[in-house]
Every structure is written in structure tokens, then in C-alpha cells.
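lol forgot to send this yesterday, sorry. C-alpha cells for the thing we talked abt
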């Protein structure tokens, strides 16, 4: 498979991981907290993606009128319609029916460093998409101090200004898309500089901050965590170390809080601590804290709404490095979802079996055949980059946009899925509050007690296009013949990577969990519970 220098803004660990897999250099792999890494992926405004005029390759038009070739993108209104959020039952407030926008609920987005322009960017996002609603109820907190980096990044370090630059995209994505689902919720951006990169020393800072917010926020608060480290990073002391952090989650669960964690963006492939986070593990791995049994693990799908991918080639790029139209081809119309697994990068939903945690009692009977350990994810939401979500950002503009002012762009990754799932759960708690009920409590077990089977769209294997299914493995960087095309979206094994993945099946599976929630049924079922 041919590869290209593409301006992908991902976690530094993620960018290094792409390089380690042989995916070629990634332009924006500069600093982030590799292991404590944001799991957002942004395609920069580069030639070949941004075009001067609308043509047959135009797949997305950003809110400022910018034409984007080959990559599709969605506005909040499109996502709200696709998942049925616009059809969630109204609330009864003072004898009047009002839309359920998550009013009265609190969502905490946990991100290292935060963003120096978070409030202004969210307000512009509001003005663009939700101008008829009140201004966002938003607070950014720096419980351990606010590092001042001058909104510039000029190195390739894994900490400091360039780590802050990389996390700024994550933070902006999180707040804008939690807001997109629950625009009247109180949003808190909890910004905590981690102590280091791929490892665990930075975790105490984050968890001290989370613990403080558990005490400071109302019962039923929803915490979204779009970061992760490979479980093996903890080494031989994994059970003891994670148990300390799990005590924080348990304290929140006792108050009917929920914790949502993105399951990861590199399929079953895990990043090791070696050589500035450029090593990988030879066996399937999963990410923590998504693997904790006290956390709702959120995986990824690819939503194709109004378009259908139609590849006839497995090569994403030409020999000269340009986009190969035969790979990126699409037809108009259609509405479908598949497991998120994009071969061009390659990137895809995290999922699989934990090596730390045994199977919790509430997960017994799901995903049989994969041993007796905790399986992730529990649920899923759109996470694809080709099918990403619109984001407005002015933080670190040279880093995030390639200019000096900021831009509209689009993001993918399970980082996009986690805050939106938290937002949907805010609608559940708002509905319950209007009925005089307590917040729903820990969501994950309820998914396995019938909600996942009854109120979800099941994600099953999908075949898109007509790209050849059988060819020499050398063409894709693996040994032996390949019997799979890029259009076979059936597991989370990354393209041209020999580490095995987990299959996408009917019912629960370890790539998309129960699938994606049907918002009206999901909210109604949980609101109706005692």
C-alpha cells in the first residue's frame, strides 16, 4: 500500500506509532503526552485536502465555506439527526414541554493543559450552530496551575508548549462536541499538565484533579476522558497501580457519577515506552483507563450519512504521493455505520481483552470465546476521520491550522466519541431530574442488562466497494497472501499490521461494544428506570 506525507494532527504517541508501523512520516507529530495521550486526530489544511473550488472530489464544506476533498465531515445538526438526538423526548418543566438539552447537568472534560482559547472558540462554535440558545455555560479550571506557553509551539518535544499545542486540539474537540449533544449542560474543562509522557507518573496529577471535581460537582456528574495508555505500561505492578486510581472512579460511582473513556485509535496495536514512544507490542493490547471496570469504554464507528464509500483500489495514495481517486471514491446517498477502521493511516477503534482486570460480573455472557477478562469497549459512536466532526480552533494556530489566526477544521478519533456519549447521558439525567428521579448511576452494567440489545444499532461486518480481496501480502507490508480488501470493515486489525484484531459480530463485540445508541430509545429506556 502506498503511503504519503499527510498532515495528521494526532497524539505525538499516535504519530510516532504510525511511523513505527511503517506508515511513513506524519507531519504534525510534535509534542503531546505520548502515553497520557489525547486520542483526537485532525487532518490539517494542506494541499490535496483543501481545494480552491468545488469539484467532484469535494466531500465536505466547512462552515466558513472551505472545500475539502475526499474527507467527509459533519456539523452538530447532522450528527444530532443521524443518531436521533433531535427526536429525544421533550422535558416537562413547569408544565411546559421543552427540548432536552441536558439542562441542569454537569459534564467535566478531563484534558492535560486545556486550551488558552477554549471559551472564545466554544462561543464561536455556539454562534455558528446554536445561535438561538443561550451562551454556553462553560468554565475552565486549572487546579494545579495554568502553564503559560504564549500560544506557540516550535519544537518536537513530548512536553511543554508542543504538548500543550497537541492537547489544545483534544480539549477543543471535547468541549465543542459535548456541547453539541447537551448544549444547556454546564461544561467544565479540567486542565492538568501531566508530569511526563508514555508512563504513569503523570496520572496522579490527573486523578487528584478528578477527585477534587467529584467533591466539587453535583451527584450525577459525567466525566469524559479522551486519553489513554497501553495497559502494559504499568508493568508488573499494574493491578496495584490501577487499583489506586480505580478508588477515584469508585468514589464517583458512589455519587451516581459516570466516567467515559475513549478506547483508543490504533485498533489492537499498542504503543510501548521505548524510544520516545515509537515502539509497539507484538500482541493485541487495550488502553487504560478505558479497560477499567469502573469506566464506560467508548469505541468508534464510521458513520456514512449522505455518502457511501466505493473503493476499487487498496492504494490510498499514488506513486507520486497524491490521493488515489480509485481508493477515495464515493457515491452520493446512503446511511450506514461500520466498525471504524481506516486503512489509509492506518487508524481504527481500540478494543479487546484486558490483561489487568478479570471479567466483571455484569459482563458475563457477552463476548464469549475471548477468555475471562474485561472486554472493551462497552458502547460506540462515530469516530472516523473520513466522516469527522467540525471543530473551530484558534489555539496554537500555526500548529493546529498552519496559519496565524485559527481555522475551521475537522477531527476524528474515539476522542470525539467519548464526550458525545457523555453528552447523551446528560440528556438521560436531565429527563430523570424532570421526573424527580436521581441520576442514572453507573451506565455500563445497564447496557448488558438489556439496553444494549434493545436500544442500540448493532454494528456488523460491512463490505464497501470492489477493491481486490486477494493479493500478495508484500504489497501491504505483511508476509503471506492477503484475503481482505480495504472495504472489508469487519474487525479492528489495522491495515498492513500483523497484530491480530478482534472481529465485529452481531450482538456485543470487542470492537464496537453493543454498537451505537438510538438516542430516543436510549434516553427513554434509562429515564424510565426506577
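and heres what i got for the seq, position by position
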Amino acid at each position: 500500500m502506498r503511503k504519503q506525507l499527510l498532515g495528521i494532527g494526532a497524539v505525538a504517541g499516535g504519530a510516532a506509532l504510525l511511523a513505527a508501523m511503517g506508515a511513513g512520516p506524519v507531519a504534525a507529530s510534535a509534542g503531546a503526552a505520548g502515553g497520557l495521550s489525547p486520542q483526537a486526530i485532525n487532518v490539517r489544511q494542506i494541499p490535496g485536502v483543501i481545494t480552491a473550488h468545488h469539484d467532484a472530489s469535494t466531500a465536505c464544506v466547512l462552515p466558513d465555506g472551505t472545500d475539502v476533498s475526499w474527507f467527509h465531515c459533519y456539523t452538530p445538526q447532522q450528527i444530532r439527526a443521524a443518531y436521533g438526538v433531535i427526536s429525544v423526548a421533550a422535558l416537562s418543566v413547569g408544565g411546559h414541554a421543552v427540548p432536552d438539552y441536558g439542562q441542569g447537568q454537569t459534564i467535566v472534560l478531563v484534558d492535560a493543559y486545556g486550551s488558552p482559547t477554549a471559551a472564545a472558540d466554544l462561543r464561536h462554535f455556539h454562534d455558528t450552530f446554536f445561535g438561538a440558545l443561550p451562551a454556553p455555560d462553560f468554565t475552565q479550571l486549572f487546579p494545579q496551575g495554568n502553564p503559560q506557553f504564549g500560544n506557540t509551539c516550535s519544537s518536537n518535544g513530548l512536553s511543554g508548549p508542543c504538548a500543550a499545542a497537541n492537547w489544545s486540539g483534544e480539549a477543543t474537540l471535547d468541549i465543542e462536541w459535548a456541547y453539541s449533544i447537551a448544549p444547556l449542560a454546564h461544561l467544565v474543562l479540567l486542565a492538568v499538565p501531566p508530569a511526563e509522557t508514555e508512563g504513569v507518573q503523570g496520572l496522579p496529577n490527573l486523578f487528584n484533579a478528578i477527585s477534587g471535581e467529584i467533591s466539587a460537582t453535583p451527584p450525577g456528574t459525567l466525566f469524559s476522558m479522551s486519553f489513554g495508555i497501553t495497559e502494559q505500561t504499568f508493568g508488573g505492578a499494574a493491578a496495584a497501580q490501577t487499583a489506586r486510581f480505580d478508588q477515584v472512579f469508585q468514589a464517583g460511582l458512589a455519587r451516581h457519577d459516570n466516567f467515559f473513556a475513549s478506547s483508543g485509535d490504533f485498533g489492537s496495536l499498542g504503543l510501548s515506552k521505548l524510544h520516545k514512544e515509537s515502539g509497539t507490542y507484538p500482541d493485541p493490547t487495550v488502553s487504560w483507563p478505558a479497560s477499567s471496570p469502573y469506566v464506560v469504554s467508548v469505541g468508534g464507528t464510521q458513520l456514512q450519512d449522505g455518502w457511501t464509500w466505493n473503493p476499487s483500489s487498496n492504494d490510498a495514495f499514488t506513486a507520486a504521493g497524491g490521493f488515489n481517486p480509485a481508493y477515495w471514491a464515493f457515491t452520493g446517498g446512503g446511511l450506514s455505520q461500520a466498525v471504524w477502521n481506516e486503512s489509509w493511516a492506518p487508524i481504527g477503534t481500540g478494543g479487546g481483552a484486558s490483561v489487568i482486570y478479570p471479567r466483571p460480573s455484569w459482563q458475563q455472557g457477552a463476548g464469549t470465546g475471548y477468555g475471562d477478562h474485561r472486554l472493551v469497549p462497552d458502547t460506540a459512536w462515530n469516530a472516523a476521520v473520513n466522516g469527522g466532526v467540525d471543530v473551530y480552533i484558534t489555539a496554537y494556530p500555526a500548529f493546529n491550522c498552519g496559519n496565524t489566526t485559527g481555522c475551521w477544521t475537522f477531527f476524528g478519533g474515539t476522542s470525539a466519541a467519548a464526550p458525545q456519549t457523555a453528552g447523551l447521558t446528560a440528556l438521560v439525567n436531565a429527563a430523570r431530574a424532570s421526573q424527580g428521579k436521581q441520576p442514572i448511576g453507573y451506565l455500563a452494567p445497564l447496557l448488558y442488562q438489556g439496553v444494549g440489545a434493545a436500544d442500540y444499532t448493532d454494528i456488523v461486518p460491512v463490505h464497501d466497494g470492489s477493491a481486490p480481496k486477494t493479493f500478495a501480502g508484500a504489497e501491504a507490508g505483511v508476509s503471506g497472501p492477503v484475503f481482505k480488501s480495504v472495504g472489508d470493515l469487519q474487525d479492528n486489525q489495522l491495515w498492513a499490521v500483523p497484530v491480530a484484531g478482534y472481529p465485529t459480530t452481531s450482538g456485543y463485540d470487542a470492537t464496537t461494544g453493543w454498537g451505537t445508541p438510538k438516542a430516543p430509545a436510549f434516553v427513554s429506556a434509562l429515564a424510565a428506570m426506577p
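The chain is about 25% helix and 25% strand. anyway ping me if u want another try
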